[in-house]
Write a structure and sequence with these properties.
Helix content of chain A: 25-40%
Number of domains of chain B: 1
CATH class of chain B: Alpha Beta
Radius of gyration of chain B: 16 Å
Largest interface: A-B, 48 and 41 residues
Distance between the termini of chain B: 23 Å
CATH class of the largest domain in chain A: Alpha Beta
Strand content of chain A: 15-25%
CATH architecture of chain B: Alpha-Beta Barrel
Shape of chain A: globular
Helix content of chain B: 10-25%
Strand content of chain B: 15-25%
Largest sheet of chain A: 7 strands, mixed
Number of domains of chain A: 2
CATH superfamily of chain B: Aconitase, domain 4
Distance between the termini of chain A: 42 Å
Largest sheet of chain B: 7 strands, mixed
Number of strands of chain A: 19
Order of helices and strands of chain B: EHHEHEHEEEEHH
Strand order of the largest sheet of chain A: 12-11-19-18-13-14-17
Number of strands of chain B: 7
Oligomer: heterodimer
Strand order of the largest sheet of chain B: 4-3-2-1-5-6-7
Shape of chain B: globular
CATH architecture of the largest domain in chain A: 2-Layer Sandwich
Number of helices of chain B: 6
Protein backbone atom coordinates (compact mmCIF):
# COMPACT_ATOMS: atom_id res chain seq x y z
CA UNK A 1 0.00 0.00 0.00
CA UNK A 2 1.08 3.59 -0.59
CA UNK A 3 1.14 6.30 2.09
CA UNK A 4 -2.48 7.43 1.67
CA UNK A 5 -3.80 3.85 1.56
CA UNK A 6 -1.84 3.05 4.74
CA UNK A 7 -3.31 6.01 6.64
CA UNK A 8 -6.85 5.21 5.49
CA UNK A 9 -6.50 1.48 6.31
CA UNK A 10 -5.42 2.41 9.83
CA UNK A 11 -8.34 4.83 10.23
CA UNK A 12 -10.75 2.17 8.97
CA UNK A 13 -9.33 -0.44 11.37
CA UNK A 14 -8.39 -2.68 8.48
CA UNK A 15 -5.26 -4.53 7.44
CA UNK A 16 -5.45 -3.21 3.91
CA UNK A 17 -7.51 -1.09 1.53
CA UNK A 18 -7.37 -0.63 -2.22
CA UNK A 19 -7.91 2.38 -4.44
CA UNK A 20 -11.56 2.60 -5.51
CA UNK A 21 -13.05 1.05 -2.36
CA UNK A 22 -15.57 2.98 -0.28
CA UNK A 23 -14.65 2.74 3.40
CA UNK A 24 -15.74 4.29 6.69
CA UNK A 25 -12.96 5.98 8.64
CA UNK A 26 -12.65 7.28 12.20
CA UNK A 27 -11.89 10.99 12.17
CA UNK A 28 -9.00 12.34 14.29
CA UNK A 29 -9.73 16.04 13.77
CA UNK A 30 -12.64 17.99 12.26
CA UNK A 31 -11.98 21.66 11.52
CA UNK A 32 -14.50 24.31 10.57
CA UNK A 33 -14.60 28.12 10.27
CA UNK A 34 -16.94 31.11 10.13
CA UNK A 35 -18.28 30.47 6.62
CA UNK A 36 -19.16 26.78 6.85
CA UNK A 37 -19.33 26.36 10.64
CA UNK A 38 -22.75 28.00 11.18
CA UNK A 39 -24.56 25.99 8.46
CA UNK A 40 -22.80 22.77 9.59
CA UNK A 41 -23.93 23.45 13.17
CA UNK A 42 -27.50 24.06 11.93
CA UNK A 43 -27.50 20.66 10.21
CA UNK A 44 -25.90 18.96 13.24
CA UNK A 45 -28.61 20.32 15.57
CA UNK A 46 -31.41 19.46 13.17
CA UNK A 47 -30.18 15.88 12.73
CA UNK A 48 -28.88 15.00 16.20
CA UNK A 49 -30.91 17.32 18.47
CA UNK A 50 -30.72 20.92 19.69
CA UNK A 51 -28.72 19.92 22.78
CA UNK A 52 -26.85 16.91 21.42
CA UNK A 53 -23.15 16.84 22.35
CA UNK A 54 -20.56 16.61 19.58
CA UNK A 55 -18.87 13.21 19.31
CA UNK A 56 -15.61 14.39 20.90
CA UNK A 57 -15.05 17.99 21.95
CA UNK A 58 -11.26 17.48 21.92
CA UNK A 59 -11.35 16.64 18.23
CA UNK A 60 -13.46 19.54 16.93
CA UNK A 61 -11.40 22.63 16.12
CA UNK A 62 -13.14 25.90 15.18
CA UNK A 63 -11.02 28.66 13.67
CA UNK A 64 -12.84 31.78 12.42
CA UNK A 65 -10.71 33.31 9.66
CA UNK A 66 -12.63 34.22 6.51
CA UNK A 67 -14.72 37.38 7.05
CA UNK A 68 -13.25 38.84 10.23
CA UNK A 69 -12.16 42.47 9.96
CA UNK A 70 -15.38 43.68 8.36
CA UNK A 71 -18.46 45.64 9.34
CA UNK A 72 -20.74 43.21 7.52
CA UNK A 73 -23.66 42.40 9.83
CA UNK A 74 -24.09 38.78 8.72
CA UNK A 75 -20.36 38.01 8.86
CA UNK A 76 -20.17 39.21 12.46
CA UNK A 77 -23.39 37.39 13.30
CA UNK A 78 -21.79 34.16 12.04
CA UNK A 79 -18.83 34.57 14.40
CA UNK A 80 -21.35 35.11 17.23
CA UNK A 81 -22.97 31.78 16.26
CA UNK A 82 -19.60 29.99 16.49
CA UNK A 83 -18.91 31.61 19.86
CA UNK A 84 -22.29 30.49 21.18
CA UNK A 85 -21.82 26.91 19.97
CA UNK A 86 -18.28 26.73 21.41
CA UNK A 87 -19.65 27.88 24.75
CA UNK A 88 -22.64 25.46 24.70
CA UNK A 89 -20.38 22.54 23.85
CA UNK A 90 -17.49 23.79 26.04
CA UNK A 91 -15.06 23.35 23.17
CA UNK A 92 -11.42 23.69 24.26
CA UNK A 93 -10.21 24.47 20.72
CA UNK A 94 -12.16 27.52 19.63
CA UNK A 95 -10.02 30.49 18.57
CA UNK A 96 -12.25 33.48 19.14
CA UNK A 97 -12.07 36.76 17.26
CA UNK A 98 -10.98 39.91 19.03
CA UNK A 99 -8.81 38.48 21.78
CA UNK A 100 -5.55 36.71 22.61
CA UNK A 101 -6.84 33.39 21.25
CA UNK A 102 -7.47 34.67 17.73
CA UNK A 103 -5.25 32.91 15.21
CA UNK A 104 -6.20 33.71 11.61
CA UNK A 105 -6.12 31.43 8.56
CA UNK A 106 -7.21 27.94 9.66
CA UNK A 107 -4.81 25.95 7.48
CA UNK A 108 -1.78 27.61 9.08
CA UNK A 109 -3.34 27.80 12.54
CA UNK A 110 -3.90 24.01 12.50
CA UNK A 111 -0.17 23.16 12.30
CA UNK A 112 0.77 26.01 14.66
CA UNK A 113 -1.60 24.54 17.27
CA UNK A 114 -0.37 20.97 16.77
CA UNK A 115 -3.39 19.44 14.96
CA UNK A 116 -1.52 18.28 11.84
CA UNK A 117 -0.10 14.98 13.03
CA UNK A 118 1.51 12.28 10.86
CA UNK A 119 -0.58 9.16 10.26
CA UNK A 120 -3.89 10.78 11.27
CA UNK A 121 -7.08 11.80 9.42
CA UNK A 122 -8.21 15.44 9.26
CA UNK A 123 -11.37 16.71 7.58
CA UNK A 124 -12.15 20.39 7.23
CA UNK A 125 -14.97 22.42 5.71
CA UNK A 126 -12.56 24.15 3.37
CA UNK A 127 -11.02 22.92 0.15
CA UNK A 128 -7.49 23.92 1.21
CA UNK A 129 -7.63 21.47 4.14
CA UNK A 130 -5.33 19.41 1.87
CA UNK A 131 -2.58 21.76 3.14
CA UNK A 132 -2.04 19.46 6.16
CA UNK A 133 -0.92 16.57 3.96
CA UNK A 134 2.56 18.13 4.19
CA UNK A 135 2.75 16.45 7.61
CA UNK A 136 2.02 12.92 6.36
CA UNK A 137 -1.62 13.28 7.41
CA UNK A 138 -4.66 12.38 5.28
CA UNK A 139 -6.42 15.74 4.98
CA UNK A 140 -9.22 16.80 2.68
CA UNK A 141 -12.03 19.32 2.31
CA UNK A 142 -15.71 18.48 2.83
CA UNK A 143 -19.06 20.28 2.86
CA UNK A 144 -21.36 21.31 5.68
CA UNK A 145 -23.50 18.15 5.57
CA UNK A 146 -20.51 15.80 5.83
CA UNK A 147 -19.09 17.96 8.64
CA UNK A 148 -22.40 17.73 10.53
CA UNK A 149 -22.31 13.96 10.06
CA UNK A 150 -18.82 13.84 11.62
CA UNK A 151 -19.87 16.16 14.48
CA UNK A 152 -22.48 13.59 15.44
CA UNK A 153 -20.73 10.31 14.67
CA UNK A 154 -16.96 10.87 14.41
CA UNK A 155 -17.02 8.92 11.16
CA UNK A 156 -17.24 9.54 7.43
CA UNK A 157 -17.19 7.42 4.26
CA UNK A 158 -14.45 8.03 1.74
CA UNK A 159 -13.48 6.46 -1.52
CA UNK A 160 -9.84 5.37 -1.38
CA UNK A 161 -8.12 7.51 -4.03
CA UNK A 162 -5.48 6.43 -6.52
CA UNK A 163 -2.13 8.16 -6.02
CA UNK A 164 -0.17 10.20 -8.55
CA UNK A 165 3.45 10.52 -7.46
CA UNK A 166 5.60 13.55 -8.30
CA UNK A 167 9.34 13.15 -7.70
CA UNK A 168 11.66 16.16 -7.64
CA UNK A 169 15.31 15.20 -8.05
CA UNK A 170 18.30 17.40 -7.26
CA UNK A 171 18.69 20.83 -5.76
CA UNK A 172 16.10 23.56 -6.26
CA UNK A 173 17.71 26.75 -7.68
CA UNK A 174 17.82 29.68 -5.20
CA UNK A 175 15.39 31.81 -7.25
CA UNK A 176 12.75 29.05 -7.45
CA UNK A 177 10.23 28.53 -4.64
CA UNK A 178 7.76 25.74 -3.79
CA UNK A 179 5.07 27.91 -5.39
CA UNK A 180 6.88 27.64 -8.73
CA UNK A 181 6.99 23.83 -8.41
CA UNK A 182 3.29 23.46 -7.76
CA UNK A 183 2.31 25.97 -10.50
CA UNK A 184 4.49 23.95 -12.89
CA UNK A 185 2.70 20.71 -11.95
CA UNK A 186 -0.81 22.19 -12.15
CA UNK A 187 0.05 23.68 -15.54
CA UNK A 188 1.32 20.27 -16.69
CA UNK A 189 -1.67 18.19 -15.59
CA UNK A 190 -4.50 20.77 -15.70
CA UNK A 191 -7.15 21.91 -13.23
CA UNK A 192 -8.80 18.49 -13.33
CA UNK A 193 -5.61 16.47 -13.84
CA UNK A 194 -5.78 14.89 -10.38
CA UNK A 195 -9.55 14.80 -9.80
CA UNK A 196 -10.46 12.13 -7.21
CA UNK A 197 -6.76 11.32 -6.75
CA UNK A 198 -3.96 11.81 -4.24
CA UNK A 199 -0.92 13.86 -5.24
CA UNK A 200 2.14 12.60 -3.39
CA UNK A 201 5.36 14.63 -3.50
CA UNK A 202 8.75 12.99 -3.03
CA UNK A 203 12.43 13.16 -3.93
CA UNK A 204 15.33 15.06 -2.37
CA UNK A 205 14.06 18.34 -3.86
CA UNK A 206 10.93 18.01 -1.70
CA UNK A 207 12.52 16.47 1.39
CA UNK A 208 15.03 19.36 1.55
CA UNK A 209 12.16 21.85 1.87
CA UNK A 210 11.10 23.22 5.27
CA UNK A 211 7.56 22.56 6.52
CA UNK A 212 6.16 25.86 5.27
CA UNK A 213 7.38 25.19 1.72
CA UNK A 214 6.05 21.63 1.87
CA UNK A 215 2.66 23.11 2.81
CA UNK A 216 2.76 25.34 -0.27
CA UNK A 217 2.92 22.14 -2.35
CA UNK A 218 0.10 20.23 -0.65
CA UNK A 219 -2.07 23.35 -0.22
CA UNK A 220 -2.61 23.68 -3.96
CA UNK A 221 -3.37 20.07 -4.94
CA UNK A 222 -7.07 21.05 -4.94
CA UNK A 223 -6.21 23.40 -7.82
CA UNK A 224 -5.57 20.25 -9.90
CA UNK A 225 -8.73 18.65 -8.51
CA UNK A 226 -6.76 16.46 -6.06
CA UNK A 227 -8.48 14.90 -3.07
CA UNK A 228 -5.43 15.14 -0.87
CA UNK A 229 -1.75 15.97 -1.16
CA UNK A 230 0.78 14.11 0.91
CA UNK A 231 4.49 14.01 1.77
CA UNK A 232 6.12 11.25 3.83
CA UNK A 233 6.99 12.51 7.30
CA UNK A 234 10.64 12.76 8.39
CA UNK A 235 12.70 14.42 11.13
CA UNK A 236 11.79 17.88 9.79
CA UNK A 237 8.11 16.97 10.24
CA UNK A 238 8.57 15.50 13.72
CA UNK A 239 10.60 18.51 14.90
CA UNK A 240 7.82 20.88 13.82
CA UNK A 241 5.00 18.80 15.32
CA UNK A 242 6.78 18.11 18.63
CA UNK A 243 7.40 21.83 19.13
CA UNK A 244 3.65 22.38 18.80
CA UNK A 245 2.03 19.52 20.71
CA UNK A 246 2.76 16.86 23.25
CA UNK A 247 0.10 14.61 21.68
CA UNK A 248 1.37 11.20 20.61
CA UNK A 249 1.13 10.22 16.95
CA UNK A 250 2.05 7.19 14.85
CA UNK A 251 3.54 8.07 11.48
CA UNK A 252 2.97 5.63 8.62
CA UNK A 253 4.92 5.15 5.39
CA UNK A 254 4.26 3.71 1.95
CA UNK A 255 5.45 0.16 1.26
CA UNK A 256 8.32 -0.36 -1.16
CA UNK A 257 5.99 -2.31 -3.48
CA UNK A 258 3.23 0.33 -3.29
CA UNK A 259 1.10 0.92 -6.39
CA UNK A 260 0.66 4.31 -8.02
CA UNK A 261 -1.65 5.65 -10.71
CA UNK A 262 1.39 7.30 -12.29
CA UNK A 263 4.86 8.60 -11.47
CA UNK A 264 6.21 11.86 -12.88
CA UNK A 265 9.79 13.05 -12.41
CA UNK A 266 11.18 16.59 -12.44
CA UNK A 267 14.80 17.65 -12.47
CA UNK A 268 15.01 20.59 -10.08
CA UNK A 269 17.82 22.31 -11.97
CA UNK A 270 15.43 22.75 -14.94
CA UNK A 271 12.79 24.57 -12.89
CA UNK A 272 12.01 28.25 -13.47
CA UNK A 273 9.96 31.01 -11.79
CA UNK A 274 6.37 30.45 -12.95
CA UNK A 275 3.03 32.26 -13.06
CA UNK A 276 -0.55 31.17 -13.60
CA UNK A 277 -2.12 33.70 -15.95
CA UNK A 278 -5.76 34.84 -15.64
CA UNK A 279 -8.23 33.17 -15.07
CA UNK A 280 -7.15 29.65 -14.17
CA UNK A 281 -4.43 28.13 -11.96
CA UNK A 282 -3.36 25.83 -14.84
CA UNK A 283 -2.83 28.70 -17.29
CA UNK A 284 0.92 28.50 -16.83
CA UNK A 285 3.76 30.53 -18.25
CA UNK A 286 7.32 31.11 -17.17
CA UNK A 287 7.90 34.54 -15.67
CA UNK A 288 10.26 35.20 -18.59
CA UNK A 289 7.41 34.64 -21.06
CA UNK A 290 5.14 37.26 -19.46
CA UNK A 291 7.82 39.65 -18.12
CA UNK A 292 6.86 43.28 -18.70
CA UNK A 293 3.10 42.74 -18.33
CA UNK A 294 1.72 45.91 -16.71
CA UNK A 295 0.22 45.50 -13.23
CA UNK A 296 -1.73 47.69 -10.82
CA UNK A 297 -1.60 45.67 -7.58
CA UNK A 298 0.57 43.21 -5.65
CA UNK A 299 -0.74 40.96 -2.89
CA UNK A 300 1.24 38.77 -0.48
CA UNK A 301 -0.93 36.68 1.82
CA UNK A 302 -3.21 33.62 2.31
CA UNK A 303 -2.63 30.04 3.47
CA UNK A 304 -0.52 29.42 0.39
CA UNK A 305 1.60 32.55 0.30
CA UNK A 306 1.25 34.34 3.67
CA UNK A 307 3.55 32.27 5.88
CA UNK A 308 6.66 33.54 7.66
CA UNK A 309 9.05 32.17 5.04
CA UNK A 310 6.97 33.82 2.29
CA UNK A 311 7.43 37.21 3.96
CA UNK A 312 11.13 36.61 4.55
CA UNK A 313 11.45 35.89 0.81
CA UNK A 314 9.52 39.05 -0.13
CA UNK A 315 11.44 41.20 2.38
CA UNK A 316 14.81 40.02 1.08
CA UNK A 317 13.87 41.58 -2.25
CA UNK A 318 12.01 44.64 -0.94
CA UNK A 319 14.65 45.72 1.60
CA UNK A 320 15.75 49.24 0.80
CA UNK A 321 13.40 49.45 -2.20
CA UNK A 322 10.12 51.28 -2.85
CA UNK A 323 7.07 49.63 -4.37
CA UNK A 324 5.51 51.10 -7.50
CA UNK A 325 2.24 49.16 -7.08
CA UNK A 326 -0.43 49.21 -4.38
CA UNK A 327 1.10 46.38 -2.39
CA UNK A 328 -0.81 44.51 0.29
CA UNK A 329 0.83 42.31 2.92
CA UNK A 330 -1.49 40.03 4.93
CA UNK A 331 0.05 37.58 7.42
CA UNK A 332 -1.92 34.31 7.57
CA UNK A 333 -1.90 34.18 11.38
CA UNK A 334 -1.27 36.38 14.41
CA UNK A 335 1.85 34.32 15.14
CA UNK A 336 3.19 35.27 11.71
CA UNK A 337 2.35 38.92 12.45
CA UNK A 338 4.57 38.63 15.53
CA UNK A 339 7.30 37.08 13.36
CA UNK A 340 7.16 40.12 11.07
CA UNK A 341 7.96 42.28 14.10
CA UNK A 342 10.81 40.10 15.42
CA UNK A 343 12.57 38.53 12.42
CA UNK A 344 15.18 40.83 10.93
CA UNK A 345 17.26 41.16 7.80
CA UNK A 346 20.52 43.07 8.43
CA UNK A 347 18.98 44.26 11.69
CA UNK A 348 15.73 45.61 10.19
CA UNK A 349 12.43 43.87 10.99
CA UNK A 350 10.35 42.47 8.13
CA UNK A 351 7.54 44.80 9.27
CA UNK A 352 9.77 47.85 8.95
CA UNK A 353 11.08 46.68 5.56
CA UNK A 354 7.51 46.42 4.22
CA UNK A 355 6.48 49.75 5.73
CA UNK A 356 9.53 51.56 4.36
CA UNK A 357 8.91 50.04 0.94
CA UNK A 358 5.40 51.53 1.00
CA UNK A 359 3.37 48.32 1.39
CA UNK A 360 0.13 48.25 3.38
CA UNK A 361 0.09 45.63 6.15
CA UNK A 362 -3.23 44.07 7.20
CA UNK A 363 -4.50 41.97 10.09
CA UNK A 364 -4.24 38.18 9.97
CA UNK A 365 -7.14 36.55 8.08
CA UNK A 366 -8.06 35.18 4.65
CA UNK A 367 -8.68 38.81 3.59
CA UNK A 368 -8.83 39.42 -0.17
CA UNK A 369 -7.73 35.93 -1.26
CA UNK A 370 -11.41 35.14 -1.80
CA UNK A 371 -12.84 38.63 -2.22
CA UNK A 372 -15.30 38.69 0.65
CA UNK A 373 -17.46 41.63 1.80
CA UNK A 374 -16.84 44.97 0.02
CA UNK A 375 -14.79 46.41 2.94
CA UNK A 376 -12.25 43.54 2.91
CA UNK A 377 -8.60 44.63 3.12
CA UNK A 378 -6.93 44.46 -0.31
CA UNK A 379 -10.10 43.34 -2.16
CA UNK A 380 -10.14 43.92 -5.92
CA UNK A 381 -13.12 46.18 -6.61
CA UNK A 382 -12.59 47.16 -10.25
CA UNK A 383 -10.35 46.39 -13.20
CA UNK A 384 -7.16 45.77 -11.24
CA UNK A 385 -4.38 43.62 -12.67
CA UNK A 386 -2.95 41.93 -9.62
CA UNK A 387 0.02 39.66 -9.03
CA UNK A 388 -0.60 37.54 -5.98
CA UNK A 389 0.91 34.77 -3.84
CA UNK A 390 -2.58 33.29 -3.28
CA UNK A 391 -3.86 30.03 -4.76
CA UNK A 392 -6.76 30.88 -7.09
CA UNK A 393 -7.25 33.29 -9.97
CA UNK A 394 -10.75 32.27 -11.08
CA UNK A 395 -12.92 35.05 -12.56
CA UNK A 396 -13.98 37.31 -9.68
CA UNK A 397 -12.13 35.27 -7.04
CA UNK A 398 -10.48 38.30 -5.39
CA UNK A 399 -13.67 40.38 -5.56
CA UNK A 400 -14.22 41.77 -9.06
CA UNK A 401 -15.17 39.94 -12.26
CA UNK A 402 -13.42 42.71 -14.21
CA UNK A 403 -10.08 42.17 -12.47
CA UNK A 404 -7.25 39.88 -13.61
CA UNK A 405 -5.00 37.90 -11.28
CA UNK A 406 -1.58 36.36 -11.90
CA UNK A 407 -0.45 33.78 -9.35
CA UNK A 408 3.26 33.72 -8.52
CA UNK A 409 5.87 33.13 -5.81
CA UNK A 410 6.68 35.74 -3.14
CA UNK A 411 10.01 36.42 -4.93
CA UNK A 412 8.22 37.16 -8.19
CA UNK A 413 5.46 39.22 -6.55
CA UNK A 414 7.98 41.34 -4.60
CA UNK A 415 10.15 41.91 -7.68
CA UNK A 416 7.08 42.90 -9.70
CA UNK A 417 5.88 45.27 -6.95
CA UNK A 418 9.12 47.24 -7.32
CA UNK A 419 8.90 47.68 -11.11
CA UNK A 420 5.13 47.74 -11.62
CA UNK A 421 5.40 44.98 -14.23
CA UNK A 422 5.80 41.24 -14.06
CA UNK A 423 9.48 40.87 -13.25
CA UNK A 424 11.81 37.90 -13.05
CA UNK A 425 13.13 37.60 -9.48
CA UNK A 426 16.60 36.89 -10.84
CA UNK A 427 16.81 40.63 -11.56
CA UNK A 428 16.77 41.31 -7.82
CA UNK A 429 18.11 38.12 -6.27
CA UNK A 430 21.85 38.01 -6.41
CA UNK A 431 24.51 36.33 -4.33
CA UNK A 432 24.67 39.50 -2.29
CA UNK A 433 20.94 39.56 -1.43
CA UNK A 434 20.83 39.43 2.38
CA UNK A 435 19.33 36.46 4.23
CA UNK A 436 17.27 36.71 7.41
CA UNK A 437 19.41 37.22 10.52
CA UNK A 438 19.88 34.24 12.81
CA UNK A 439 17.46 34.30 15.73
CA UNK B 1 -37.37 11.83 -6.29
CA UNK B 2 -39.05 11.66 -9.69
CA UNK B 3 -37.21 9.74 -12.36
CA UNK B 4 -38.07 12.21 -15.09
CA UNK B 5 -36.80 15.75 -14.99
CA UNK B 6 -38.16 18.19 -17.56
CA UNK B 7 -37.15 21.79 -17.79
CA UNK B 8 -35.47 24.76 -19.35
CA UNK B 9 -31.73 24.52 -20.00
CA UNK B 10 -28.97 26.98 -19.07
CA UNK B 11 -25.65 26.29 -20.84
CA UNK B 12 -22.21 26.99 -19.31
CA UNK B 13 -18.59 26.29 -20.31
CA UNK B 14 -15.74 24.29 -18.75
CA UNK B 15 -14.35 24.66 -15.20
CA UNK B 16 -17.26 26.54 -13.65
CA UNK B 17 -15.80 26.99 -10.15
CA UNK B 18 -17.78 27.49 -6.96
CA UNK B 19 -16.74 31.17 -6.75
CA UNK B 20 -18.65 31.63 -10.01
CA UNK B 21 -21.57 29.55 -8.73
CA UNK B 22 -21.85 31.68 -5.57
CA UNK B 23 -19.26 34.46 -5.02
CA UNK B 24 -17.69 34.59 -1.54
CA UNK B 25 -19.21 38.02 -0.86
CA UNK B 26 -22.62 36.31 -0.51
CA UNK B 27 -21.65 33.37 1.70
CA UNK B 28 -22.65 34.94 5.00
CA UNK B 29 -26.40 34.42 4.68
CA UNK B 30 -28.04 31.67 6.72
CA UNK B 31 -28.94 28.50 4.80
CA UNK B 32 -31.87 27.92 7.19
CA UNK B 33 -33.56 31.30 7.67
CA UNK B 34 -36.34 31.57 5.03
CA UNK B 35 -35.70 35.26 4.34
CA UNK B 36 -31.91 35.03 4.21
CA UNK B 37 -31.61 31.85 2.20
CA UNK B 38 -33.53 33.40 -0.70
CA UNK B 39 -30.38 35.41 -1.47
CA UNK B 40 -28.63 32.22 -2.56
CA UNK B 41 -31.17 31.90 -5.37
CA UNK B 42 -30.76 35.58 -6.16
CA UNK B 43 -26.96 35.37 -6.51
CA UNK B 44 -26.61 31.83 -7.95
CA UNK B 45 -24.17 31.86 -10.89
CA UNK B 46 -23.75 35.63 -10.55
CA UNK B 47 -19.97 35.16 -10.63
CA UNK B 48 -19.97 33.82 -14.19
CA UNK B 49 -18.40 36.37 -16.58
CA UNK B 50 -21.26 38.02 -18.54
CA UNK B 51 -20.10 36.80 -21.95
CA UNK B 52 -20.14 33.19 -20.72
CA UNK B 53 -23.46 33.38 -18.87
CA UNK B 54 -25.99 31.38 -20.92
CA UNK B 55 -24.18 29.99 -23.96
CA UNK B 56 -23.84 30.07 -26.90
CA UNK B 57 -24.53 33.82 -26.98
CA UNK B 58 -23.91 34.73 -23.33
CA UNK B 59 -25.18 37.87 -21.65
CA UNK B 60 -28.14 36.05 -20.04
CA UNK B 61 -28.42 36.54 -16.27
CA UNK B 62 -29.22 33.20 -14.60
CA UNK B 63 -31.49 34.90 -12.06
CA UNK B 64 -32.86 38.33 -13.11
CA UNK B 65 -31.88 41.32 -10.91
CA UNK B 66 -35.13 41.57 -8.97
CA UNK B 67 -35.85 37.83 -8.67
CA UNK B 68 -34.93 35.10 -6.19
CA UNK B 69 -35.54 32.18 -8.54
CA UNK B 70 -34.27 31.39 -12.00
CA UNK B 71 -36.46 30.33 -14.91
CA UNK B 72 -33.89 27.58 -15.71
CA UNK B 73 -34.19 24.05 -14.28
CA UNK B 74 -31.30 22.13 -15.84
CA UNK B 75 -27.66 23.19 -16.20
CA UNK B 76 -25.76 21.74 -19.14
CA UNK B 77 -22.08 22.47 -18.54
CA UNK B 78 -18.61 21.63 -19.82
CA UNK B 79 -16.14 19.54 -17.88
CA UNK B 80 -14.94 19.89 -14.25
CA UNK B 81 -18.12 21.56 -13.01
CA UNK B 82 -17.91 22.83 -9.41
CA UNK B 83 -14.13 23.03 -9.04
CA UNK B 84 -12.46 25.15 -6.36
CA UNK B 85 -13.84 25.92 -2.93
CA UNK B 86 -15.65 23.27 -0.86
CA UNK B 87 -18.56 25.63 -0.11
CA UNK B 88 -21.75 23.57 0.12
CA UNK B 89 -23.46 26.90 -0.47
CA UNK B 90 -22.81 26.23 -4.20
CA UNK B 91 -25.16 23.27 -4.81
CA UNK B 92 -27.51 24.85 -2.24
CA UNK B 93 -27.61 28.10 -4.27
CA UNK B 94 -28.47 26.17 -7.43
CA UNK B 95 -31.28 24.38 -5.59
CA UNK B 96 -32.61 27.67 -4.18
CA UNK B 97 -32.65 29.11 -7.69
CA UNK B 98 -34.80 26.17 -8.78
CA UNK B 99 -32.24 23.90 -10.48
CA UNK B 100 -33.14 20.20 -10.44
CA UNK B 101 -30.15 18.67 -12.21
CA UNK B 102 -26.73 19.46 -13.61
CA UNK B 103 -25.44 17.57 -16.65
CA UNK B 104 -21.68 17.66 -17.23
CA UNK B 105 -19.05 15.22 -18.53
CA UNK B 106 -17.15 15.54 -15.21
CA UNK B 107 -17.36 17.10 -11.76
CA UNK B 108 -14.92 18.31 -9.16
CA UNK B 109 -15.26 15.79 -6.36
CA UNK B 110 -16.22 18.01 -3.41
CA UNK B 111 -19.05 19.64 -5.38
CA UNK B 112 -20.27 16.22 -6.49
CA UNK B 113 -20.20 14.88 -2.96
CA UNK B 114 -21.94 17.97 -1.54
CA UNK B 115 -24.67 17.88 -4.20
CA UNK B 116 -25.39 14.21 -3.40
CA UNK B 117 -24.89 14.11 0.39
CA UNK B 118 -26.92 17.29 0.93
CA UNK B 119 -29.60 16.19 -1.56
CA UNK B 120 -29.52 19.57 -3.33
CA UNK B 121 -29.32 18.83 -7.06
CA UNK B 122 -28.66 15.65 -9.04
CA UNK B 123 -25.18 15.76 -10.62
CA UNK B 124 -25.52 13.67 -13.78
CA UNK B 125 -22.55 12.69 -15.91
CA UNK B 126 -23.01 12.81 -19.67
CA UNK B 127 -21.06 10.71 -22.12
CA UNK B 128 -19.07 13.50 -23.74
CA UNK B 129 -19.64 17.24 -23.72
CA UNK B 130 -23.24 18.20 -24.60
CA UNK B 131 -22.80 21.98 -24.55
CA UNK B 132 -22.65 22.13 -28.38
CA UNK B 133 -26.01 20.38 -28.58
CA UNK B 134 -28.02 22.77 -26.42
CA UNK B 135 -28.83 26.46 -26.53
CA UNK B 136 -29.75 28.29 -23.37
CA UNK B 137 -33.56 28.30 -23.26
CA UNK B 138 -34.03 24.87 -24.89
CA UNK B 139 -36.36 22.43 -23.16
CA UNK B 140 -34.83 19.10 -22.16
CA UNK B 141 -36.11 15.81 -20.79
CA UNK B 142 -33.94 13.70 -18.53
CA UNK B 143 -35.10 10.09 -18.19
CA UNK B 144 -33.16 8.69 -15.24
CA UNK B 145 -34.56 5.16 -15.58
CA UNK B 146 -33.13 4.80 -19.07
CA UNK B 147 -30.19 7.22 -18.67
CA UNK B 148 -31.26 9.36 -21.60
CA UNK B 149 -31.54 13.07 -22.21
CA UNK B 150 -33.55 14.60 -25.05
CA UNK B 151 -33.40 18.06 -26.55
CA UNK B 152 -37.04 18.87 -27.40
CA UNK B 153 -36.07 21.51 -29.99
CA UNK B 154 -33.78 19.26 -32.06
CA UNK B 155 -35.11 15.83 -31.10
CA UNK B 156 -31.55 14.70 -30.40
CA UNK B 157 -31.12 12.01 -27.76
CA UNK B 158 -28.03 11.69 -25.55
CA UNK B 159 -26.70 8.95 -23.31
CA UNK B 160 -26.16 9.69 -19.64
CA UNK B 161 -24.03 7.64 -17.26
CA UNK B 162 -25.51 5.61 -14.42
CA UNK B 163 -25.34 7.32 -11.03
CA UNK B 164 -23.94 4.06 -9.69
CA UNK B 165 -23.57 3.56 -5.96
CA UNK B 166 -24.60 7.13 -5.10
CA UNK B 167 -28.05 6.58 -6.67
CA UNK B 168 -29.29 5.27 -3.29
CA UNK B 169 -28.24 8.47 -1.53
CA UNK B 170 -29.76 10.63 -4.30
CA UNK B 171 -33.03 8.69 -4.12
CA UNK B 172 -33.11 8.89 -0.32
CA UNK B 173 -32.66 12.68 -0.55
CA UNK B 174 -29.25 12.93 1.11
CA UNK B 175 -26.74 11.20 3.39
CA UNK B 176 -28.76 11.59 6.61
CA UNK B 177 -31.95 10.21 5.07
CA UNK B 178 -29.93 7.37 3.55
CA UNK B 179 -28.23 6.60 6.87
CA UNK B 180 -31.59 6.51 8.68
CA UNK B 181 -33.20 4.26 6.06
CA UNK B 182 -30.31 1.86 6.54
CA UNK B 183 -30.42 2.03 10.35
CA UNK B 184 -26.89 3.43 10.49
CA UNK B 185 -27.86 5.54 13.50
Amino acid sequence: MNLTEKILAKAAGRKSVEAGENIWVDVDILMTHDVCGPPAIDIFKKQFGQNAPVWDKNRLVIIPDHFIHTNDYYANRNVDLLRKFASEQQLPYYYDVGGEDYKGVCHIALPEEGFTRPGEVLFGTDSHTCNAGAFGQFATGIGNTDAAFIMGTGKLWVKVPETMKFIFEGEIPPYVMAKDLILQIIGDIGVDGATYRTMEFAGDGIMNLDMESRMTMTNMVIEAGGKNGVIEPDEVTYDYVRQRTSAQFEPVFGDTDARYHSVRRYQCEDLLPMVAKPHSPDNKATVEEVAGTELTRAYIGSCTGGKTSDFVAAARILKGKTVKLDTYVVPATTEITRDLKTITIDGQTLWSIFEEAGAKIGDASCAACLGGPPDTFGRLNGQEVCISTTNRNFPGRMGSKQASVYLASPYTVASSAITGKITDPREYLTEGTPMADAV
Amino acid sequence: MSNTIKGKVFVLGDNIDTDQIIPAGHLMYSLEDPEEKKFYGRYALSGVPDEQSGLPDGGIPFTPEDQFESEFDIIVAGRNFGCGSSREHAPFALQQAGVKAVVSPSYARIFYRNAVDGGFVVPIESRGDLTEHFNTGDTAWIDRDNNKMINERTGEEFELLELGEVAHIVDAGGIFEYARQNNMF
